[in-house]
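Key idea: predict the complex, not the pieces.
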Amino acid sequence: MIKKIPHRLYLTEDQMPTQWYNLRADMKEKPEAMLNPATGKPVQPEDLYPVFCEKLAHQELDDTTRYIDIPDEILEMYKNYRPSPLCRAYNLERALETPAKIYYKFEGNNTSGSHKLNSAIAQAYYAKEQGLKGLTTETGAGQWGTALSEACCYFGIPLTVYMVKASYEQKPFRKSIMETFGAAVIASPSSTTEAGRKILAENPDTTGSLGCAISEAVEKAVTTEGYKYVLGSVLNQVLLHQSIIGMESAKAMEILGEYPDIVIGCAGGGSNLGGLIAPFMRDKLTGKASPRIIAVEPASCPSLTRGKFVYDFCDTGKITPMAKMYTLGCTFTPSPIHAGGLRYHGMAPIISKLYHDGYMEAVAVEQTKVFEAATFFAKYESILPAPESAHAIRTAIDEAIKCKETGEEKTILFGLTGTGFFDMTAYNAFHEGTMNDYIPTDEDLQKGFDNLPKIPGIQE
Amino acid sequence: MIKKIPHRLYLTEDQMPTQWYNLRADMKEKPEAMLNPATGKPVQPEDLYPVFCEKLAHQELDDTTRYIDIPDEILEMYKNYRPSPLCRAYNLERALETPAKIYYKFEGNNTSGSHKLNSAIAQAYYAKEQGLKGLTTETGAGQWGTALSEACCYFGIPLTVYMVKASYEQKPFRKSIMETFGAAVIASPSSTTEAGRKILAENPDTTGSLGCAISEAVEKAVTTEGYKYVLGSVLNQVLLHQSIIGMESAKAMEILGEYPDIVIGCAGGGSNLGGLIAPFMRDKLTGKASPRIIAVEPASCPSLTRGKFVYDFCDTGKITPMAKMYTLGCTFTPSPIHAGGLRYHGMAPIISKLYHDGYMEAVAVEQTKVFEAATFFAKYESILPAPESAHAIRTAIDEAIKCKETGEEKTILFGLTGTGFFDMTAYNAFHEGTMNDYIPTDEDLQKGFDNLPKIPGIQE
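Result:
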């Protein structure tokens, strides 16, 4: 145990975790099985082989193995940027005059700018191991595409990225970074797929959507010999890979002789949240500790706080298996808020189940309050946070202020998932006072609920 | 001593240097005195007070104190992002099949994206300590402006940044980041100064220049009560602050039981280079070791390899003191190459003197070769380097390839000064094959030399 807690603790290579932790193994009630939309039957690994590579299909459905060894080749690339630091926010604490101790795990110190790289490396590695000829994916804001480009470049796997046309045009530098790492970046919708051509024929001027980009990426994968599709969030396998965040955090906290009273993460698809909370939720599931665990979502896309816990498609195009999760309906279109990474209609099935079963809390926060927190944090901690990450900052600050009021010296840990260099349009809007706090009405949400799938015998 | 050398070594807070090292103290022949352009006499601290704050004026002229304690307040902010990692480039070594051991000190893991923050913090702190009401500076590519914004925000000092209009328009996100940190950012030339108004009257459509921005920033500082001017490179004080890079590197190497045979840094104004090499040059000056030390400059702006070692102005506007340095003449206009940070007509006087006296080597490299090295490095080390930093990568790779040819197992250390997120226009040009390797002709250089200042009795 270290007596004087440093501003930043980096584990040594010897201390780095060498296993992922599979949260599902300790859940007494498992997340409900994914369903094959054609048959309404639970999905088997083989059902996923056409889309995912085999090892990942098995990881997707494995809800019993607690710890999974991280292959050496993955650990080797992790060492290009990991361990990430566990930071003590001394300056923020002083500024807030709070008795709380605030820690954050900073995942932005890599070229992709976010935690996405943790799963991208794993997925690219398994693709190489299976001898695949290439991968496809989609990207919205571009962090996932960047991360996967880095990983595929490292392992020598060709990659095609379908990038939502609006982002392709607004964020040309994101595209350039992916190209620097050798990826082929295609604006979606495109004429390279049936799905893209159909949408272009109907609406030649569309700027695309994530749903459409997913459809194109999946189609390209299943119609190209030796290609598979990979996804950066929501999936069980992604949460598994992201557990490296939590495992490092728990190890660092142990070295410091600390344990969090409250663990806070922003929640879009749920990948960073699922990764950060993994070992702390394990302790809660196994009765070893009982930290509060809080998911923070945008008030404009409130899947946990205002969604329904039902079966739904993971994509707008309704081509994926159906998962039971908190959802606003796969046809729900969030307002064009700036925190791009949190604009997902659903929530990872693991997170949904844990929330449903009372193991965690959820709060929804408004955008301007998020940016207030982001700029306050930047001033004292000298890091420009991604808008997504700033949702967690907002709630961490709110909890620290409560500690000031009550005098409680709580230990708060939050996930700082990434940096905001490519989100300056949003920061500009905040500075200029043109940012608004759109909150969907009940009627808006009902439209999404009306389109939820009907599954005979399961969900009528 | 650590037996298995990790991919990244972070010093612990206890191991972090608490003193800057002043290289001049160990130079048997000191850099020549700066001259007051009005009198032709050596500059005294008082001569600098109108422009610089007092502590910094003294640091500028102090060539005898070897070690200077870093104030606690500065150390506290350093801990927001330092120590920076010393990285072993295992993946790059494997890719090159070289017996050389390649290390790099990575200074890009902070919001400013470069090493500039090391001196920005010091300069902002001393301004606060002196009770100043504000600071002014100029910025070209924006790294320095970003760094100083962060530092001034942290210490609560108002900051006005004159940003070259071309960059202001081409890099709106750089401007937004500075504004997020509370800086006032003004496109230069502007109507806020005499210098700016004059230039605008002569040429209303000008996109500005660094020289003009410096003139405006200095004028604003000297004409505003309680304001001073700060500069991010070239100056002795800046090299002093940047010695933290070298001190950390030397300490980390000591822990690893290593010592570099070759130390390589990119060279624009010379601040990162001077900081990185400081302790190794100390060892060379004091006879303890004899590493090769190599400055890498762009072939398009070759101050060391093709410039003259004479007195010249530090700025294009000829308002600063004159320094003896390798220079292409303060009126030399480098081609609009993309590696913005290395487009300076001169070289820090300390570096110039050491190079002149044979303590170090210099090489000039062409831009396309630099970007080849940058993309190769990115593939294996998963970091997108700034074009400036990639000059050092180019030479490190070249030296490692030589080792492959000779079989020598040399230890190479280079400075990776920053990240390239804001330089994607240059990467694009490289990918698209539209990048060119402009090298000035002797006639081009002669124009700059023709405008060197004449100083009666000293330089006719």
